[in-house]
Amino acid sequence: MSESSASINESSANEPPLANREQWSSRLVFILAATGSAVGLGNIWKFPYITGENGGGAFVLIYLFCIASIGIPIMMAEIMLGRRGRQDPVTTMKKLAKESGHSRSWGLLGWMGVIAGFLILSYYSVIAGWAMAYVPRMATGLFNGLEADGVNTVFSDLVSNPEGLIAWHTLFLFMTMAVVARGVRGGLEKAVTFLMPLLFILLVILIFYAMGTGHFKQGLTYLFTPDFSKITTEGILSAMGHAFFTLSLGMGAIMVYGSYLPSNTSIAKATIAVAFMDTLVALMAGMIIFPIVFANTLEPSAGPGLIFKTLPLAFGHMDYGTFFGTLFFILLVFAAWTSSISLIEPAITWGMKTFQISRLKTSFISGVLVWLLGLLTVFSFNLTSDFTITSTISTNYGEFVILKDATVFDFLDYLTSNIMLPLGGLMIAIYAGWLMKKKYSREELNINRFWYTIWLFLVRFIAPTMVIIVFLNAMGVVAFIRTIMGV
User: Fold this and answer.
1) Which residue of 53, 103, 144, 381 shows the fewest CB atoms closer than 10 Å?
2) How many angstroms separate the CA atoms of 335 and 201, rounded?
3) Is residue 16 within 8 Å of residue 102, measured between CB atoms?
4) What's the gap between Cα 185 and its chain centre?
């Protein structure tokens, strides 16, 4: 495919919106691509451990409710805006604001998404590098017979070595940019149509392995049996937050993927399919991890260390653990890879249009900038680990800590996950629900009046309210209010 056909130049007023725009070849490909964007380290790494921390099955039910009330409505809105605008997120929001008679300042929403995706990839690439580093370590039997101290030493040696982390960061980022540089049909589409089916195959293989641990039923019971006595306010807030973040909302990725969506594709059906597959991957990951954890009498609420410390310990003491442990970390790499290509795509489309340069050049420049920024995360685990940030708010009711001894990595994670993405999702909901003309949203969504009314109610009232609560909780405001009220 030629560079000219892949270029993303803004259409003139009389030009068909897709004149210079590539498209996904089918709805299935879009679903695979959007699922690939949504499925990442959060599904396989974060969902199991926050489920473990919050009591298992009851948390899963609350999470599913949050997916339906937050994730699906906002995702439909973001895809709708992307397809309506057919440009990068910045230009799309300016174009749609003009179309509905609002300020072009709404382009700032697109800017926030582009910058958030850029920042997230800079540290996501480093963490994905950890997963890549564990593949050869697991494959060579390094964890065989190790006790907890030995496994912890392996992890500590990895993150304390800046040269090694830079090497893995570089390799993962090169893999990402190599896909993005080839365009929609030649790169993104080919990658997801290969990686996503392979990811599900690996999940199924590992589930069969988990079934042989003798603790599969215990794992299923833990994951799916509701025990609402274990639900706390923190657990509910965690479910709300994860339901929002797991679908890659608010960072422009879904918006730009929506801009490649053919006009005859149902946004509602595609969104529900993506949400279902994303949730399925998270549940399948839990079905793999918990039986293995229980088989080794380990703690299911082990927190973030569950993947890089607890599971290697388990695999090192199980039959065929070397082989299946290697498969597990390959799975983790694939999940991270499909997410990373979506994180940088908004910046790529914006750069191509703004500077009128080819996708290849834009990808190279973006990759270098992300790589350089990623060094801050690399060094935050070793050379500059003593440099930390603490942010507190002093009130008459006491001092409330927002960030305490946060490294650069912690700060970037907090800034993007707790501020930029919730604000982005909130503004998407407000614009789509309140400011966009109904005739435009009806035209794009193309659903009957009953379901349109349900969507509009959710995106106007329920989803924004819940996202605001997630945002305030991340900012420490919820804890502040609870302290005042004595709750």
Assistant:
1) 103
2) 12
3) no
4) 22
pLDDT digits (tens, 9 = 90+) for 168-213: 999 999 999 999 999 999 999 999 999 999 999 999 999 999 999 9
- Residue 139, burial from CB neighbour count under 10 angstroms (0-12, 13-18, 19+): middle
Q: Nearest to residue 40, comparing CAs of 338, 406, 286?
A: 338
Locate 96 and state its tokens.
């749609």
Task: List, for residues 360-383, the tens digit of each pLDDT value.
Answer: 999 999 999 999 999 999 999 999
Distance CA 127, CA 28 (A): 29
Cα–Cα nearest to 269, from 72, 41, 40: 72
Q: The whole model's pTM is what?
A: 0.91
Task: Give the integer Cα–Cα distance in Å for 238 and 452.
Answer: 28
Neighbours of 484 (CB within 10 A): 12
Q: Is 407:388 a contact under the CB 8 Å cutoff?
A: yes
Residue 482: CB atoms within 10 Å:
11
Nearest to 119 by CA among 364, 448, 340, 297: 340
* Dihedral of alpha carbons 256, 262, 266, 271, sign: negative
Please give the DSSP secondary-structure letter assigned to residue 104: G
Orientation of helix 216-224 relative to helix 57-66, angle to 10°: 50
Tokens representing 277 are 């597959």
From the CB of residue 220, how many other CB atoms can be counted at a distance below 10 Å? 17
Rounded Cα–Cα distance for residues 444 and 452 (Å): 11
| Cα 429 from chain centre | 18
